[in-house]
Amino acid sequence: MPSTSAGPRIVQPPALPPVDTMMYLFDCTMDPGDLALTQAHQAMQIHKFCTVDNCLVRRRARQILVDEGQMVLGPRANPSPATEVRWAP
After folding, report:
1. How far apart are CA 11 and CA 2, in angstroms?
2. 28 in Cβ contact with 22 (< 8 Å)
3. Residue 80 has pLDDT above 80, yes or no
């Protein structure tokens, strides 16, 4: 019969994302590329005062959350083709 020890149980911390991905979450001018859902949520919190018009990180994070069904955009975020401005070449 194997003996069981009542010693402390060691729990591994969750894996951290690669450092280079985390670095890009703070720079509005760099597209961070593919993000996990947790990273997309973090990016939205970090860039809560940014707009998707001027922040590549917030734009990417929002698109990931929308694609995964975690966020639903309102009608103002999705302009209809009739109101969309198109420039003539």
Report:
1. 22
2. no
3. no
